[in-house]
Amino acid sequence: MVEDLKKAIRDVPDFPKKGILFKDITTLCKDPALFQRMVDILAHRYIGKGIDLVVGIEARGFIIGAALAYKLGAGIVLVRKPGKLPHKTHKASYSLEYGTDTLEIHQDAIEPGQKVIIADDLLATGGTAGAVAGLVNKMHGKIVECAFIVELDDLKGREKLAPAPVFSLIKY
Ligand code: AMP
């Protein structure tokens, strides 16, 4: 089942810069049956775990995060690039497989003790999700797991996110 999802992901060499093999999930998301399966597998993992919030990371994490939150009956929280969120924010800087950036979350997005899943399309070095985990921890949310569609094993992002548990559907 997961093998079909893997086959639907498109490899784009040298995007967004030379030497990066971009794992493009748009070809998976546009397939109705595969998109549904992807969300269902993730949701099945967390149903009954009392998840309060899914934190989606801009932008592809919103797609996965919102669908997952809906299935779980949880809320969706947005982590966005700087200057996009209208109210008071906490900020975290991080390094990416290709550059550096800052992410923001609304200061009132998570209540202490709320059970949270962090969702994104892909785990590479773990810089992005690590910054988000830092924000969730700062707000005293409880990270149940960080969930990804794709994990690039060699980059050891999983280690960077420890002790937060990591789940990925597809590994390379
Ligand atoms: P990292 O912070 O290194 O774990 O990078 C993860 C973030 O960058 C995710 O939001 C991904 O969408 C994006 N990303 C990094 N590397 C790739 C890649 N090879 N293919 C697709 N997206 C990537």
Name some characteristics of this structure:
single chain, 172 residues, 5-stranded parallel beta sheet, 6 helices, binds adenosine monophosphate, Rossmann fold, alpha/beta, globular, two-stranded antiparallel ribbon, 33% helix
- What is the CATH topology classification name? Rossmann fold
Q: Between the first and last Cα atoms, what is the distance in angstroms?
A: 16 Å
> Reading side by side through the largest sheet, how are the strands ordered?
4-3-7-8-9
CATH architecture: 3-Layer(aba) Sandwich
Q: Give me the count of strands.
A: 9
Topology record:
Layout: H1 2-8, E1 10-13, E2 21-24, H2 26-29, H3 32-46, E3 53-57, H4 60-72, E4 75-79, E5 89-96, E6 99-106, E7 115-123, H5 127-138, E8 142-151, H6 157-161, E9 166-171
Helix pairs in contact: 1-3, 3-4
Structural notes for this entry:
The chain is of the alpha/beta class. Helix content is 33%, strand content 34%. Strands 4-3-7-8-9 form a 5-stranded parallel β-sheet, sandwiched between helices. A two-stranded antiparallel ribbon has the order 1-2. The longest helix is centred in the first third of the chain and has 15 residues, at 32-46. It is globular. Adenosine monophosphate binds next to strand 2, strand 7 and helix 5.
